[in-house]
Amino acid sequence: xxxxxxxxxxxxxxxxxxxxxxxxxxxxxxxxxxxxxxxxxxxxxxxxxxxxxxxxxxxxxxxxxxxxxxxxxxxxxxxxxxxxxxxxxxxxxxxxxxxxxxxxxxxxxxxxxxxxxxxxxxxxxxxxxxxxxxxxxxxxxxxxxxxxxxxxxxxxxxxxxxxxxxxxxxxxxxxxxxxxxxxxxxxxxxxxxxxxxxxxxxxxxxxxxxxxxxxxxxxxxxxxxxxxxxxxxxxxxx
Length: 238
What we know:
It is a single chain. By secondary structure, this protein is α/β, with parallel strands linked by helices. It is built from 8 helices and 8 strands; from the N terminus they run ββαβββββααβααααα. Helix 6 (175-189) packs parallel to helix 8 (225-237). It is globular.
């Protein structure tokens, strides 16, 4: 798999150990063009970068070496990890994003992503459930890679979690207990940025982040029975 170097200066000075790499975080660029995206990721003033960028034709650019800490995740949480830059490899997919006209991801781009993820998974012994989207680890401020990203397809290649296409049945639950069960499920899966004991305004954003990944045609931010069922299935196997 050929890679093209477009090296960025935006990484931390300290080199990490191989064992520190535990996650792959998938992003979209959210900019109007590939050229603009590369320019920003290489600009010292922007203070952002990623390890890889994959354009819409499937060409892979390496911007930061794997063992360097790129600045892609920002303020983030997943399970017991905070600020995941130190423990992750970031992959940017060229896509205009929700702000500039969100696009479907071309087959060639996703094929290159899958091939790259397979290599990273093997090289760093990254677990299947540790392939995440930016919105998984920062649901209050990020929407990428978004509801058009083919998580189901990646899951079939043993990359990232998904749920089985079958009815997940729950016993009838009192309405007052729905939120408690849902967010306990999310906590077990790995999501953070919510209060387990009381409702708050941020709940809707967390629910939307979950739906963008697992219920992509129904991103409402409302806790419905299907959203709850999917969370229950995933938590059971977490």
